Amino acid sequence: TQLLEQSPQFLSIQEGENLTVYCNSSSVFSSLQWYRQEPGEGPVLLVTVVTGGEVKKLKRLTFQFGDARKDSSLHITAAQPGDTGLYLCAGAGSGTSYGKLTFGQGTILTVHP
Amino acid sequence: KAGVTQTPRYLIKTRGQQVTLSCSPISGHRSVSWYQQTPGQGLQFLFEYFSETQRNKGNFPGRFSGRQFSNSRSEMNVSTLELGDSALYLCASKGGEKLFFGSGTQLSVL
Question: For position A2, what pLDDT does the model report?
Answer without folding.
Answer: 75
